[in-house]
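WARN  no MSA supplied for this record, continuing single-sequence
INFO  ligand: flavin-adenine dinucleotide
INFO  echoing inputs
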Amino acid sequence: MPNSTLQPTQISAPKIAIIGGGLTGLFTATLLERAFSQINDQKIKDRALVPEITIFEKSRSVGRLATRYRSDSHTNKNWQWAFGAQFFTAKSASFQQFIKPWLQTDLLRPWHAQVVSLTPMAENNPTADMHLKEQWGSTQARYISTPKMTSWGRALADNLQHTTVNFNTRIAPLAGYKQTLANKTSNKTELFDENGNSLGHFDWVICTAPNGQAVEIMADSGFTEQAKITEPKMQACYSLMLGWNTDQPLPEALSRLDTAWDVAYVQESIIDRIFIEHHKPEYHALLPSMTIHARNDWSEQHVDDDIDTIKAKLLEAAQRALNWNAESTPSQVDCHRWRYAATVTASHKDQLGILVDDERQWIVSGDWCGQGNIESCYQMAAQTVAVIV
Ligand SMILES: Cc1cc2nc3c(=O)[nH]c(=O)nc-3n(C[C@H](O)[C@H](O)[C@H](O)COP(=O)(O)OP(=O)(O)OC[C@H]3O[C@@H](n4cnc5c(N)ncnc54)[C@H](O)[C@@H]3O)c2cc1C
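INFO  complex generated
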């Protein structure tokens, strides 16, 4: 849908604000820069359309791609956990094309993980049951970022030419625009931080916060699509991070000679998946590290519980799955709560897509407008660029 403000006669490119420096925000800035660069190549010879893009991110780093590490003072080696997204898929041809440059530099790598199905020990099941399920890559490739899951986000931010990324900046809700729209002399939007400081006037505002936060940012602003923000349901996820010392024996499930594995899909447990971090390509120098994701439905039911109680329950479940004893008990244990981890989507065709208010030039986007994964971030970024450019 071409936008009326960008007729070929217009020579100034819009000022664009992106709320959120997660992958949706970074992909959107990247694709916007590319789209404007193509316009410059094709249409306007005498004056370039240089977009002025600003990403406002409330935290210190990029979104739900999260890496935590800890150093062992004896060995100077690290434990490392990708406690948000572990990997991503690239099913569409356009996303495959997009990731190619980073695959060529090996920043992104396919993970040909051996995946097992694991049923933990229980009263009626004295030993954990494990059997090989598949190897990733045989039908659908999964990719990781190296040396950390956050590395790709940093590389994307570093590659931006016409975009400023302002970390530690929380955008205040846009409430009040409904009243003031009638008096506005232009359709620029002034944004403020949480302390009331003006952050400038923008032609377009793109909000990429998770929908639980987007609904608050856009509340009482007159955003025409407000009711749709809460349509996709989000579920929480608890991540448990475990590590072992070099001189420690590993739990029975990790040292089994009959089944070498990298990822486990766990059955009949509050645990959903187990990922062995030091088995990932280029992660071999790590000390034994493992990230465990709890089931989303269980996490959602317990989303407000005390984190130490959650940690204890997950440790008990992990022990049943991995079968450690006093010697092979993990020396490192950490737990993280993700309030908005997974989007519950019934099917591909139920996807919401980005939400656009043409009059105000506001777009609400994010992985949750699609299927709630990294590939959706790209799809929503592409939809946004098609509206603006
Ligand atoms: C536990 C877990 C496991 C996952 N596993 C996978 C997986 O295996 N594969 C996969 O493809 N995907 C996975 N995902 C999903 C993937 O991480 C997300 O799809 C993706 O990171 C979402 O990116 P985003 O930019 O849409 O949102 P986010 O990363 O949430 O970015 C939104 C940003 O907006 C910022 N923000 C919010 N409000 C404001 C404000 N007022 N002002 C400024 N900034 C603000 C937030 O701080 C945040 O950084 C997983 C997610 C979790 C939590």
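The radius of gyration is 23 Å.
INFO  checksum written, moving to next record
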